[in-house]
Write a structure and sequence with these properties.
The chain is an alpha/beta fold and 340 residues long. The protein is built from 11 helices and 11 strands. The termini are far apart. Helix 3 runs parallel beside helix 4 and helix 6 packs across helix 8.
């Protein structure tokens, strides 16, 4: 373990995002000095108010990253362009590949003792066995920009580990829940926004594939624990409970049930997935996932629980915490501040 009874300087990217902001809060709460690299256009005032040192810059600019990393003992890399309905290949390459390389390079230059980087599930092979911390890479992954660029960044990280850099990977499930930056937690493809749409009856259907739902504070806890307890080259599955894996309609309907509303979201049938309108509506990443076959159970995360002491909460508990928070922040009517 790395952690001693002393202050640690941590460079954090993606600190205005749902997971990143929760990582910042947990690091500050345990006494670490947190420095966040934040784009000039982003409102980082809630982070400043909690004691985070804000450095203005962009991960696509190597000089910005290196300046922010000066003196950092640990780097947590949470910034990414996500797989929304519309995807720019150039933007994904610049941020997910180039930006990640800049962060890894800066960490090596300042001799940071560990990098914890956030990643995704979409390029691992789950055709014949549940996803685990040792699952092989998919030999024929989807060719959408998000998957391609996140896979390239992962391969680069593992090559750096082979050369001696200390990097471990935390893979998030479908994260939802409260954030120190409420408005940012609702930016597409936000699962918080899907909760609201389901409860308000603003979504009627969605594509269907298994998602390992996870409360955002649990993902943050896994990333923070990986700083101290992780091992170079390992990856960890920051998911919820295996019994809570389910599709987007499942997630939306569970939120509606807990909120006490009658609206339900139906699943789009597989024979509709080749319709160009579906691709335009959901984007290439989700359509590719909806066409895949998945094992049962979907994942096994024994190493994560053992190595990181990871204990995520159940989906119902997370939704019961999230729905009143969404009402408190004005995203849902006041009546949902008290659940049935």
């Amino acid at each position: 373990m790395f952690r001693e009874d002393r202050l640690t300087t941590v460079l954090l990217t993606g600190a205005t995002g749902l997971i990143g902001s929760n990582i910042a809060a947990q690091l500050v709460a345990r006494g670490d000095k947190v420095r966040a690299l934040v784009r000039p256009s982003s409102d980082a005032s809630p982070l400043q108010e909690m004691g985070v040192d804000i450095v203005s810059g962009d991960i696509t600019e190597p000089e910005d990253v290196l300046a922010a990393a000066d003196g950092a003992e640990v780097v947590v890399h949470s910034a990414a362009v996500l797989g929304g309905a519309t995807q720019s290949a150039d933007e994904h390459r610049a941020v997910n590949v180039g930006g990640t390389a800049n962060v890894m390079d800066a960490a090596a230059t300042v001799h940071a003792r560990r990098v914890v980087t956030l990643s995704t599930t979409t390029f691992f092979d789950v055709r014949n066995a549940p996803l685990s911390e040792s699952s092989p890479l998919d030999p024929s992954p989807s060719d959408d920009p998000y998957t391609i660029t996140k896979l390239a960044a992962y391969k680069d990280a593992m090559a750096r580990v082979e050369r001696g850099q200390d990097i471990c990977v935390v893979i998030s499930g479908g994260a939802y829940g409260p954030s120190p930056l409420p408005a940012r937690s609702m930016v597409a493809p936000s699962f918080n926004a899907r909760i609201c749409a389901a409860i308000l009856g603003e979504v009627s259907d969605n594509v269907e594939f298994p998602i390992p739902w996870v409360y955002c504070e649990d993902v943050a806890a896994a990333a923070v624990s990986a700083i101290d307890r992780g091992r170079a080259g390992e990856r960890y599955l920051a998911f919820g409970h295996p019994d809570d894996v389910g599709s987007m309609p499942f997630f939306c309907n569970r939120a509606a049930e807990i909120a006490g509303v009658d609206h339900r979201v139906t699943a789009i049938s597989t024979d509709q997935l080749d319709d160009p309108a579906m691709l335009a509506r959901f984007g290439p990443s989700l359509i590719a996932l909806a066409k895949r076959k998945f094992p049962e159970p979907w994942f096994v995360a024994d190493l994560t629980r053992e190595r990181l002491g990871y204990q995520p909460i159940r989906l119902d508990e997370g939704l019961r915490l999230t729905i009143p928070w969404l009402a408190e922040k004005g995203f849902l009517p006041d009546r949902f501040s008290q659940l049935p």
